[in-house]
Amino acid sequence: DTEVTQTPKHLVMGMTNKKSLKCEQHMGHRAMYWYKQKAKKPPELMFVYSYEKLSINESVPSRFSPECPNSSLLNLHLHALQPEDSALYLCASSQGQGAWSNQPQHFGDGTRLSIL
Amino acid sequence: AQSVTQLGSHVSVSEGALVLLRCNYSSSVPPYLFWYVQYPNQGLQLLLKYTTGATLVKGINGFEAEFKKSETSFHLTKPSAHMSDAAEYFCAVSEGSTGTASKLTFGTGTRLQVTL
């Protein structure tokens, strides 16, 4: 069982739809991450939240909009996605930043997203 | 910038044989190193980590890795492979400094196949 919970597990959406991915952790971690993973590739970092503030945006297109409502929740809002955005979207959390960068990231099982 | 090289995108071993997955890193500062495993349709699970101290690190499922600074390596080993070890393995280095969030740089991954 993973300690980072992602919903939904699967999502199929059209290019004009708006949907959201949800991530939740109750480990008291203060850093949360979104990754995109294509088949047979390593995860690619998209966003990092640290203490509920956006810390890193890896030049992600604006059709992806992250939100961190509180220290346990992380959302990824999706709008007008393209077929190439089809991928596994992984959420992760870790104990924090800076001096805590030696702490491992804990991953959820991901949301498999398909864009029609 | 830090980087990770995993030699061999695909490794095949017989059940009961030694598993050796290679990882070399590049870092301008003392690195924090991690091995993750990903089973089909799942997220990444932490196998083990090296931060400071003992250079031989033991992880879950009988895996271990040795940090060799002179060789900039962090190879993953297991004395006896089991069918359940078949998965994708990622080596990663953590990049972070005071005031910034932790970022993981992943290698390209090694798919381990275990045969009877």
Q: Work out the number of β strands of chain A.
A: 11
* Alpha-carbon distance between the two ends of chain A: 31 Å
Name the structural class of chain A.
mainly beta
- The residue ranges of chain B in which pLDDT falls below 50 over 5 or more consecutive positions are none
Average residue-wise pLDDT of chain B: 92
Descriptive overview:
- The complex is a heterodimer of chains A (116) and B (116).
- Chain A is mostly beta strands and 116 residues long.
- Helices cover 0% and strands 55% of the residues of chain A.
- Chain A is built from no helices and eleven strands.
- With 116 residues, chain B is an all-beta fold.
- Chain B has strands at 3-5, 10-14, 19-21, 24-26, 32-38, 44-50, 56-58, 64-68, 73-78, 87-95, 103-106, 110-115.
- In chain B, strands 2, 5, 6, 10, 11 and 12 form a six-stranded mixed beta sheet that branches. In chain B, strands 3-9-8-7 form a four-stranded antiparallel beta sheet, with no helix packed on it. In chain B, strands 1-4 form a two-stranded antiparallel sheet.
- Chain B starts with a strand and ends with a strand.
- The model of chain B has no long low-confidence stretch (mean pLDDT 92).
- At the A-B interface, strand 5, strand 9 and strand 10 of A face strand 5, strand 6, strand 10 and strand 11 of B.
